[in-house]
Amino acid sequence: MPGPQPSDRHVPVMLDRVVALLAPALQQPGAVVVDATLGLGGHSEAFLREFPEARLIGLDRDPDALRLAGERLAPYAERTTFVHAVYDELPGVLAELGVPAIDGILFDLGVSSMQLDEAERGFAYAQDTPLDMRMDSTAPTTAADILNTYSAADLARILFQYGEEKFARRIADRIVRARETEPFTTSARLSELVRDAIPQAARRTGGHPAKRTFQALRIEVNGELDVLRRALPAAIDALALHGRIVVMSYHSLEDRITKQTLAAGTRTDVPDDLPVIPAGHEPYLKLLTRGAERPTEEEVAVNPRAASARVRAAERVRAKGLVA
Ligand SMILES: C[S@@+](CC[C@H](N)C(=O)[O-])C[C@H]1O[C@@H](n2cnc3c(N)ncnc32)[C@H](O)[C@@H]1O
């Protein structure tokens, strides 16, 4: 019996809006669009259908996602190139492919529903699964490695910074004490420890008590924020004039990095009292979204995983090579 289809394993979020934001840059023959987070190829399939003259480069750090997306997009094989890469490797990927500039790029951040649903990958806190959390199962460090080896201070720092967890120190101390008896291997023990560490009154808000700890571990395992901080400026730098970037975040840390990176491109470094902005110092980006756009209630009702999505987009308005 055939397994579930890619389209059943992950529903692309805010699909029509993402396509509309990129459309003006992708209508011309030979336009190049990069899907930096190919996943199950849901957005990419729409790009290939809606922009029949465009060529697509799809990246993913998860070899399973690349394989499944490759099968799904096989009808478009002549216009697609798939690369196993972390998205901050984009400049090297483009150089290798001989692509000097791109016309559109999408970052649909985080994990796919397929990754969340595959219990053995250990992203889920509601089931007892191995503490893995690697998006690329060939990468060296798992969540269990972090729990069993980091100092209490380092654990507290990542829980606080990446999980925005108020009780980071208490949880970190308990992790260090618990691993002296037995190392951590599966998620249920960690979920329980976190629940017990959080005072009863604080447990009633913010969803599952272990949610923030699991988010923090996932971000640390995959180096998610550092990679994003490097990748967004590199992607903007790769855009041709009038090329467009669309970024979809699922938590406030990703959205903050996106907001700051895009905003930096809309400002000029010239003092306010200068009557004209000298050439080469004009802003290089124009925002295409006012604040962050959210999915409609109708979309969230059909696809609850869209609930936390926030989209920001910008257009390159000064030619490549002039970013300060
Ligand atoms: C939300 S899913 C993308 C879903 C896709 N847009 C679709 O509709 O099918 C995110 C994907 O990005 C990949 N990913 C996350 N961080 C990455 C990174 N730093 N570099 C490359 N791929 C990454 C994950 O492995 C996952 O497959």
TrEMBL record:
<comment type="similarity">
    <text>Belongs to the methyltransferase superfamily. RsmH family.</text>
</comment>
<dbReference type="InterPro" id="IPR002903">
    <property type="entry name" value="RsmH"/>
</dbReference>
<keyword id="KW-0489">Methyltransferase</keyword>
<dbReference type="Pfam" id="PF01795">
    <property type="entry name" value="Methyltransf_5"/>
</dbReference>
<keyword id="KW-0963">Cytoplasm</keyword>
<keyword id="KW-0808">Transferase</keyword>
<feature type="binding site">
    <location>
        <position position="108"/>
    </location>
    <ligand>
        <name>S-adenosyl-L-methionine</name>
    </ligand>
</feature>
<comment type="function">
    <text>Specifically methylates the N4 position of cytidine in position 1402 (C1402) of 16S rRNA.</text>
</comment>
<feature type="binding site">
    <location>
        <position position="60"/>
    </location>
    <ligand>
        <name>S-adenosyl-L-methionine</name>
    </ligand>
</feature>
<protein>
    <recommendedName>
        <fullName>Ribosomal RNA small subunit methyltransferase H</fullName>
        <ecNumber>2.1.1.199</ecNumber>
    </recommendedName>
</protein>
<dbReference type="GO" id="GO:0070475">
    <property type="term" value="P:rRNA base methylation"/>
</dbReference>
<keyword id="KW-0698">rRNA processing</keyword>
<feature type="binding site">
    <location>
        <begin position="41"/>
        <end position="43"/>
    </location>
    <ligand>
        <name>S-adenosyl-L-methionine</name>
    </ligand>
</feature>
<feature type="binding site">
    <location>
        <position position="115"/>
    </location>
    <ligand>
        <name>S-adenosyl-L-methionine</name>
    </ligand>
</feature>
<keyword id="KW-0949">S-adenosyl-L-methionine</keyword>
<dbReference type="InterPro" id="IPR023397">
    <property type="entry name" value="SAM-dep_MeTrfase_MraW_recog"/>
</dbReference>
<dbReference type="GO" id="GO:0005737">
    <property type="term" value="C:cytoplasm"/>
</dbReference>
<feature type="binding site">
    <location>
        <position position="87"/>
    </location>
    <ligand>
        <name>S-adenosyl-L-methionine</name>
    </ligand>
</feature>
<dbReference type="InterPro" id="IPR029063">
    <property type="entry name" value="SAM-dependent_MTases_sf"/>
</dbReference>
<dbReference type="GO" id="GO:0071424">
    <property type="term" value="F:rRNA (cytosine-N4-)-methyltransferase activity"/>
</dbReference>
